[in-house]
Amino acid sequence: MAGSKEHPSKVVVGIDGSDHSRAALDWAAAEAARRGAPILAVYALGMPMVVSADPGPTRFDPTAEISEQATEVMDRVAERVRELQPSVTVETETALEEAPLALLRHCRPHDLLVVGTRGLGAFASMFVGSVSVRVAAQAPCPVVVVPSHEGRPATTSLNRVVVGVDGSTNARRALDLAVDLASESGGELVVVNSWEVPYPYDPVAMTAMGYEPQEKLFDRKSEELVAGMLADAADERREGLDVEVSVVRTQDSPVNALLRAAEGADAVVVGSRGRGTVRGLLLGSVGQGVLHHSEIPVVILPHHAEEED
Predict the structure, then answer these.
(1) What would the pLDDT profile of 186-232 be if each residue is shown by its tens digit?
(2) CB within 8 A of 185, min separation 6: which ones?
(3) Ordered structural domains, the chain, with CATH
(4) Could you give the CA distance from residue 227 to residue 128 in angstroms, rounded to a whole number?
(5) Residue ranges with strand state E in 85-125
């Protein structure tokens, strides 16, 4: 989470003038203040591409009207940040390319990327056209997707942070990120592990024959998994876990378990399993499920984010 001297960390936020991006900006301003980091607001114009042999692919320049509109939008962005967080420095950047390309180009591993949920439908998000899903799967840094409630985020605090764990490397990294986020405000960390029990045989008959009920087996394994992950996370920190930790272990689908635990929380953190040429354009089923239904900001840790630490 800490930035290097060569690449100081910043909070990058996608702007398009919509209520969705205004909600993202409000959240980004609060987080930048917590980190003592600057904001880089990126407005992608998505100008058409011109393909030619010489000098190669280029984009049309924006018209005077488009440029004026972009300037007005970015002036409002700077004014909004000064209103919310006077101590935060804000820089603005207008890019010619499409939003996913522009946002990914301006991010570094130690940054945080914040976007709204514009265009995030259950069907549309399966495709590359969804800005939120594409950057959440491909960014080199953690990505926060902020739902809009009439142009405002549900919360800008980090007093209660929920994270899902399953024992994987991705989940361990997501847990580390969640600890960092909760530590920024001295908040509470809620660690969630869930399982679903398969029933290939009659559970009553199996128990009658002396076999341990699968529910008890999964519950015991869940307890061991969570305890081990928390112990590892504490060992990696000089002062251990300096946040209040509570654990939710439940027999349920991962998406339902996270959404229930996130009721009344300020953010939910999940790891992304997407990778590869095609899979890297998409999120895993848990990440997409949480994004579709969460009312609070969702923090996605792409599988390759911060691997350069």
Answers:
(1) 999 999 999 887 666 555 555 555 555 667 888 889 999 999 999 99
(2) 34, 157, 158, 159
(3) 1-151 (3.40.50.620)
(4) 38
(5) 90-95, 112-116
